Recover the amino acids of this structure.
């Protein structure tokens, strides 16, 4: 859904080389073939807020919120691109998934590449599945005593996820592969749980946040840790499920 007013993005980190913002759910990083009704994009918003051209260092899906990085010059963008290629950046996501997924482990499940109709029009659709690895850890579980479909209660898990590879929709597809899809995922989610969530909690969104990124700064060589906060909708869910935000912050930090 397009934003009614021009968003002001929260700047989580800024130096003379890199800026990180907290991207809200529903905001595109930059223009795409799906954006015909959109007038606001993270790239332009960040450029306007910092007063100079910025270079996106990675992307977040439109429905995913959280930490989004930009370089402030071409050389830093190139150096940070190598950091991503070399897998020397650690990204931590938090998701609310369907059901009780317990314990921790590694999801090693190759994925067919999701192709963009315009950007990937020259890529063969017969390309072999690519390596895709995600570490997961179950943080908390909860149930609501409400019948949905054939089940007499609604179950949720709060998951910490660390992708090793960076395939498109990787976390969303990996949790769906485990049969614990992310709540609010219209592509890979549950067609009974999603409508229930909207009706019960009063809002519609993908419950996935890029919570934290950690890397060694390519210029200063110092460790950088950038973390986004849970917004009011996340806090509403925590309250409804009787999860203490302080406990969650300690588990996700």
């Amino acid at each position: 859904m397009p934003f009614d007013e021009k968003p002001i993005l929260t700047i989580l980190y800024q130096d003379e080389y890199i800026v990180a913002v907290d991207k809200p759910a529903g905001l595109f990083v930059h223009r795409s073939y799906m954006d015909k009704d959109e007038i606001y994009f993270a790239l332009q918003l960040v450029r306007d807020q910092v007063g100079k051209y910025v270079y996106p260092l990675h992307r977040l899906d439109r429905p995913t919120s959280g930490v989004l990085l930009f370089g402030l010059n071409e050389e830093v963008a190139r150096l940070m691109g190598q950091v991503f290629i070399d897998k020397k950046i650690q990204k931590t996501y938090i998701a609310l998934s369907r059901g009780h997924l317990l314990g921790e482990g590694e999801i090693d499940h190759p994925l067919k590449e999701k192709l963009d109709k315009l950007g990937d029009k020259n890529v063969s659709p017969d390309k072999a599945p690519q390596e895709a690895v995600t570490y997961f850890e179950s943080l908390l579980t909860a149930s609501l005593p409400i019948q949905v479909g054939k089940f007499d209660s609604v179950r949720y898990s709060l998951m910490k996820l660390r992708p090793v590879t960076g395939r498109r929709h990787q976390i969303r597809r990996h949790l769906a592969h485990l049969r614990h899809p992310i709540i609010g995922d219209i592509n890979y989610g549950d067609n009974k749980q999603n409508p229930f969530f909207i009706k019960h909690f009063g809002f519609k969104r993908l419950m996935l946040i890029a919570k934290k990124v950690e890397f060694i700064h390519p210029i200063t060589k110092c460790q950088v840790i950038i973390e986004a906060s849970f917004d009011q909708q996340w806090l509403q869910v925590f309250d409804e499920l009787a999860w203490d935000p302080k406990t969650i912050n300690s588990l996700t930090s």
Notes: The CA atoms of residues 2 and 36 lie 10 Å apart. Residues 10-113+130-252 form a domain with the Pseudouridine synthase fold (CATH 3.30.2350.10).
